[in-house]
Amino acid sequence: MRDTELAALSLLEAAPNVLRSLLAGLPDSILTADLDRGWSPKRILAHEVDVEHVFAARLHRMVEEDNPSITSIDPLATLAASDLEARPVANLLDQLETARAETIAWLRTLTAAQLQRTAHHDTLGQFTVSNLIHYWPTHDLAHINGVRRMLTSVLRHEMGPCENFDI
After folding, report:
1. CB 132 within 8 A of CB 55
2. Is 70 helix (H, G, I), strand (E, B) or coil?
3. How far apart are CA 120 and CA 154, in angstroms?
4. Rg, Å, the chain Cα set
5. Section 74-85 average pLDDT
6. Euclidean distance between CA atoms 114 and 62, whole angstroms
């Protein structure tokens, strides 16, 4: 694997722990609050668990099938169809950590030829296993940043004059 793929795998491996560090122990009122156009920290976590299976399934198909067709998903619709948001945060964190560890272990076994296998996405066109491996941690980081913004907004309301400190 190239350095950028190794970096992507490292970031993928770290994401469940980052989310656990941010979310474990927070009150339910904050975890479930609509803090960004229908999104809450818990909903983001549930979405991460949901798409964990989507990305892993896509990668397996790409390695096992010749140029499979991949269709877009509606993340909120697939999340609504699941029971993930009803589960406790600790359960979601454990599920993400376990599934991610299994996926990372498998990804580390891929050969250079497997990393170049392709799929055709209904809106993106042709892409490779390597492309998706590079995209996935950016997806994680975008959602981790969303959680960070949400938690900052919760705290900012109670900062009083300390809000004027240079962060």
Report:
1. yes
2. strand
3. 41
4. 18
5. 90
6. 8
pLDDT of residue 11: 98
Question: At residue 166, does pLDDT exceed 80?
Answer: no
| Distance of alpha carbon 34 from alpha carbon 50, whole angstroms | 19
| Cα 51 to Cα 27, 79, 140, 143, 163, distances in angstroms | 25, 9, 10, 12, 36
Q: Which residues pair with 120 in a beta bridge?
A: 69, 126
Size of the chain, expressed as the number of residues it contains: 167
For residue 23, what are the contacts with CB-CB under 8 A and spacing of at least 6? 31, 41, 42, 45, 89, 93, 147
How much is the average pLDDT of 83-107? Answer: 96
Distance CA 11, CA 34 (A): 27
Average pLDDT over residues 35-53: 93
Structure tokens at 47: 């979405």
Distance (Å, whole) CA 75 – CA 61 = 19
E strand spans, the chain? 69-70, 118-121, 125-128
d(CA 37, CA 139): 18
Nearest Cα to 120, choosing from 67, 73, 74, 72?
67
Q: What are phi and psi of 62, to 5 degrees?
A: -65, -35
